[in-house]
Amino acid sequence: MKTNILVVDDERDFAKMLSERLELKGLSTAVVFDGFKALSWLNENSCEIVLLDLGLPGMNGIDVLPRIKEAHPFVQVVILTAASDVNIAIAGMKLGATDYLIKPVTFDILLGAIHDAQARRIGQEESLRMIETSKMAAFGVLAEGVAHEITNPVNVMLAAAGWVEDLLGDNIVLPAEDRAEMFSALAKIRDQGMRCKDIVAKLLAFGGRIDPTPKSVQVNDFLVSMIKKKGEWAEQLRVDIQGEFAADLPMIFIPPSLFAVALENIIDNSLDAMEGKGGVLRVTTSLEDNFCNLAFSDTGRGIAKADLGRIFEPFFSTKEVGKGTGLGLSICYRMVKGMGGEIWVESKEGEGTTLSVRLPLPPAN
Ligand SMILES: Nc1ncnc2c1ncn2[C@@H]1O[C@H](COP(=O)(O)OP(=O)(O)O)[C@@H](O)[C@H]1O
Ligand SMILES: [Mg+2]
What CATH class has 215-360? Predict the structure, then answer.
């Protein structure tokens, strides 16, 4: 369960009693007795509110406070202090504390301060989310514009390439090497055209312009058809795609076009990573509690340690310009998180990468 409140106080009996009373009010708590412990606890756990005593052994509360706020800006710090330290508590407000209370404090006043701090935290998170949303909305408009601009010429390009290819194939007598060059030029037109189409699909998905209506989807079927679609390319790369699917998977509820963009990108990433060396891509599905797990394991070049934390960022790509948009995994991330799932990656440079996705199943009727 998520911890609501971390109590930091060196008066052990007081701290424990306070935590017990808060628990009785339905709040989950953790207790530490000094500032260093508070910082290390927060590095490994999370909470909404820290009730911080000022007179702590080792690192003083007033020194702990800015460190908490710097590392965990949304954590609300409520200072609990003795009357003699009121001036320090006021200084604490300047350092980002939400409130201060003077001991002894009645339990009701403390609860009131906790509720205010919770509300303030929600407010801060909401305003951040609003900024994010408006950025996304702006991006959506941009994406739509780009999509509109690029779709028509791309379609013309694709059609023209096919037409010229037909013409050359049947009628015109050209020296063999010219013909070969022409064909390779045409292949380039087609590849680049496809690439543009792909970029457009990703921009649309990223801008949220893909039909977001969730539908019942059979994950295994979806994967099988995606793998089939990639068959020819995989063969060229000498990649063996192996599927191992759980037989008893229930349907999941997901926007199908978005799911398709996400899965295609994950598989494309694996294939890209095996370009030049070939290898194996294992795609597995399994059922675990109320989740459907998908895993994509490749024997590709892997991801550098320094990049591991960045691959889900929009526009992060290690691929050459024109080859990577850096949008694929950020689309996956948003889709998966949006439906309450998880997505994570494990990778060893030079050995391979496993991308795992955990999607919640709809509640059984
Ligand atoms: N299976 C994989 N093997 C190696 N690197 C990967 C793999 N999947 C993703 N990556 C890395 O993550 C980056 C971001 O992926 P993505 O968001 O799909 O953007 P793009 O594929 O357009 O570069 C890639 O550029 C690549 O460096
Ligand atoms: Mg990609």
Answer: alpha beta
